[in-house]
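Entry 12.
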Amino acid sequence: MWRRMGAAAVFSMLPAALALGLDFPYVAYVNTGDVYVRSGPGRDYYPTEKLQKGEPVEVYRHDPGGWLAIRPPRNSFSWVSSRHLDALDDEVAVVNSERVVARVGSAISDVRDVIQVRLARDEKVELVEPPTGDSPWCKIAPPAGEFRWVFAKYVDRELPGDLAEDEREAGAGWTDDGHVRLAGGDEDEPEDRDDPGIRAHMAGDLARLRELARLRELEHIDMELSAIVAQDISQWSLAELHKRAERAVHAAQGSLERGRARVLLDKLARFDDIKRRHDALGDAARERTNRAAVAASESALDASFDGVGRLSPVVSQGTGGPQYALLDESGAVRSFVTPAPGVNLRPFVDKRVGVNGQRGYLTDLKRQHISVQRVALLETQRR
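Predicted 3D structure (tokens):
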């Protein structure tokens, strides 16, 4: 009964959703008590927990049959085989194998046969509970791309009437840009604001709204990151996402929130490293291309002369011998040269030059000989 669902499914649904005037994800509220959250879009999928009236859910997709794909509620968890995880601390572990199965966990039963996500090697996950040596399974926070489902008729876009009135009195809610709106002052509070029960209810609602807003921001960063890395790597720009993720880490409360924020920062760091390596390879490739172009231009330049090299005087053992030699980079003689009448080579000694003239061969020295008629300084061209 397992099936693979991931973040790509969310993006594939967005155009159709926008055409219907929907803007995913959106916040909705459970309109009755004891609503099952399920591991898949259908009653054949096992329930993972129950939600109570007024609890917020974040809807990411409308699936056939009247099922809504939602972000796993705050107490959700998944199972991973302990042998595939190495704990970094009490909050985060790293995956040590390829394509490790994450199984949807349930607070209602021990069933765990639904698989939505497979984890990559070196991916970091949030630990709900530190792994123990005697347990074959480790409980983790639901990884990115994993969903739960509720039946649409049990969810409304607005809070149920009685709870909505309480929230209006508390002055809490969502602003148009998706942030939490908190109480504006004493005039917004109910007359019996000193009642401990109402205070506790208001505090609980506000805490849930704040938590949902923080988790929503992490999810938005993750989705924006997915959209960015789907582009050509030369267009990646992650600096702004880094700033937002760091703010989310500082704002996080509780080990699960902090773990999720740290996992997101680690994912950003991995993509940053990929971008740096790509840019470095690009620079190296450009440098190789430049060197090849310079070498090619030098080869073409060298081909236009009868001889090329560093001009060095020759100490002759007798009369009539060559006066100069052209040396290669290692100092070996390429050819001997003698200036033709009217040609002065002294100003070019110890400089790299190209010469043209009458070529011959010195049998006793076993080297080419050039009677130089024209000389050109190549030091400037080489640089």
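Annotation: The chain has six helices and 21 strands. The first strand starts at residue 26 and ends at 30.
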